[in-house]
């Protein structure tokens, strides 16, 4: 294994493909502007910024800054990525790559795109001015998305696209000013934990297709809806959903458990159970100061137990 110094004039794709680079090598990138797309075709390559001004600039003509093509164990750390027309970083297949502490902006489509890949870590990236911030798609499973920030996305901040995008974890992320939903979560057994969403055009949190999703200790405000649940057997606990222009929590699915949430100051019911929402358990929530009602139940066989309603308590979970 070696540490290889890289400058903006280096063709990094060719370097990685050559015999000069072996699995486990570190490419240490000098400050400067890199006008290139890097295709990583070897496992366990580490690409690390030497300083804080290693800039990948696609000049609004290049497709992507980095494409990880069926590889394992690659790290991309500390880079500034801007002005690419499709991807900031794309992971296609492979597994267990680490995308850490990058600043990604002005990407026409996807900040970080993961397709058919598993066990990746996406941690502490800052993403803004994109269509979608972080997208998991095409049976991407068991990925960890932790402590990232997405601002000013035209569509979704964080998204797992279909029910086959399962067993992923979204933890302690922040999203604001989202043109669609800040968190759009599909996929069985996904975890949404301690995230914050502000100012989505539609929902701060959309919990959709794919059963058994768990959402705990998230905060959502200033959206159309704080959270929308269309899946079945989701568990939502200790979430704080407030000051949304429609519902704090809208439910259309069955057999969900809504427990110990704080839902306040929403404009079209605190909890709205639609006519398709049946056999849900609404337990021990504080649902207060919502208009026109704290809880509106239009479904069948929903069980409501020990919820606090009205407008007379101090707030705090």
TrEMBL record:
InterPro entries: Beta_helix (IPR039448), Pectin_lyas_fold (IPR012334), Pectin_lyase_fold/virulence (IPR011050)
Location of the Right handed beta helix domain: 66-218
Top-level taxon of the source organism: Bacteria
Gene3D superfamilies for the chain: Single-stranded right-handed beta-helix, Pectin lyase-like
SUPFAM superfamilies with a match to the protein in the record: Pectin lyase-like
Pfam assignment, any one: Beta_helix
Name of the protein this chain belongs to: Right-handed parallel beta-helix repeat-containing protein
Lineage: Bacteria, Bacillati, Bacillota, Clostridia, Peptostreptococcales
């Amino acid at each position: 294994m070696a540490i290889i110094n890289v400058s903006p004039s280096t063709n990094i794709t060719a370097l990685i493909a050559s015999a000069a680079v072996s699995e486990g090598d570190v490419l240490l990138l000098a400050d400067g502007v890199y006008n290139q797309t890097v295709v990583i075709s070897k496992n366990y390559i580490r690409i690390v910024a030497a300083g804080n001004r290693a800039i990948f600039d696609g000049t609004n003509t290049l497709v992507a800054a980095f494409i990880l093509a069926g590889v394992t164990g690659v790290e991309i750390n500390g880079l500034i990525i801007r002005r690419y027309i499709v991807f900031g970083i794309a992971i296609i297949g492979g597994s267990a790559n680490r995308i850490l502490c990058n600043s990604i902006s002005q990407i026409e489509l996807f900040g970080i795109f993961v397709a058919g890949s598993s066990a990746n870590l996406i941690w502490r990236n800052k993403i803004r001015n994109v269509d979608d911030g972080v997208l998991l798609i095409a049976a991407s499973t068991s990925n960890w998305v932790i402590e990232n920030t997405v601002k000013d996305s035209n569509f979704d901040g964080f998204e797992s696209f279909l029910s086959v995008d399962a067993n992923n974890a979204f933890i302690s992320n922040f999203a604001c000013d989202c043109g669609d939903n800040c968190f759009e979560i599909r996929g069985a057994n996904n975890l949404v934990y301690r995230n914050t969403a502000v100012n989505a055009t539609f929902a701060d949190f959309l919990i959709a297709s794919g059963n058994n999703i768990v959402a705990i200790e998230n905060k959502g405000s200033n959206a159309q809806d704080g959270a929308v649940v269309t899946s079945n057997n989701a568990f939502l606990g200790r979430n704080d959903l407030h000051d949304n222009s429609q519902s704090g929590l809208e439910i259309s699915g069955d057999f969900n458990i809504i427990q110990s949430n704080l839902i306040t100051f929403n404009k079209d019911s605190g909890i709205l159970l639609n006519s398709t929402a049946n056999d849900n358990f609404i337990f021990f929530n504080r649902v207060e100061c919502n208009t026109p009602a704290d809880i509106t139940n239009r479904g069948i066989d929903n069980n409501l137990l020990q919820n606090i309603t009205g407008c007379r308590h101090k707030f705090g979970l």
